[in-house]
Amino acid sequence: MTFTVDASVAARGFEVSLSLGPAETVAVLGPNGAGKSTLLAVIAGLLRPDTGRAQLDGKLLFDLQQGVQAGTWTAPHRRGTALLAQEALLFPHLSALENVAFGPRSAGVPKGEAREAARHWLAEVGAADLAARRPDELSGGQAQRVAVARALAANPQVLLLDEPMAALDIHAAPLLRRLLKRVLAGRRAIIVTHDVLDAYMLADRVIVMEQGRITEEGPTRALLRRPRSSFAAGLAGLNLVSGTVTSTGIRSAEGLEFAGLHDGPLGEGQAGVAAFPPSAVSVFLSEAHGSPRNSFKVTVTDLEPHGDQIRVRAGELSADVTPAASADLSLAPGLEVYFVVKAAAVAIYPA
Amino acid sequence: MNPRPVGTYSGIPRWVVAIAAVGALFVLLPLAAMAARVNWAKFIPLVTSEASLTALGLSLRTAAASTVLCVLFGVPLALVLARGGFPGQRLLRSFVLLPLVLPPVVGGIALLYTFGRQGLLGRSLEVAGIQIAFSTTAVVLAQTFVALPFLVVSLEGALRSAGSRYEAVAATLGARPTTVLRRVTVPLVLPGLASGAVLSFARSLGEFGATLTFAGSLQGVTRTLPLEIYLQRETDADAAVALSLVLVAVAVIVVGLSYRRPAAGTRSSAPEKRVSP
Question: H/E/C letters for each residue in chain B?
Answer without folding.
Answer: CCCCCCCCCCCCCHHHHHHHHHHHHHHHHHHHHHHHCCCHHHHHHHHCCHHHHHHHHHHHHHHHHHHHHHHHHHHHHHHHHHHCCCCCHHHHHHHHHHHHHCCHHHHHHHHHHHHCCCCCCHHHHHHCCCCCCCCHHHHHHHHHHHHHHHHHHHHHHHHHHHCCHHHHHHHHCCCCHHHHHHHHHHHHCHHHHHHHHHHHHHHHHHCCHHHHHHHCCCCCCCCCHHHHHHHHHHHCHHHHHHHHHHHHHHHHHHHHHHHCCCCHHHCCCCCCCCCCC
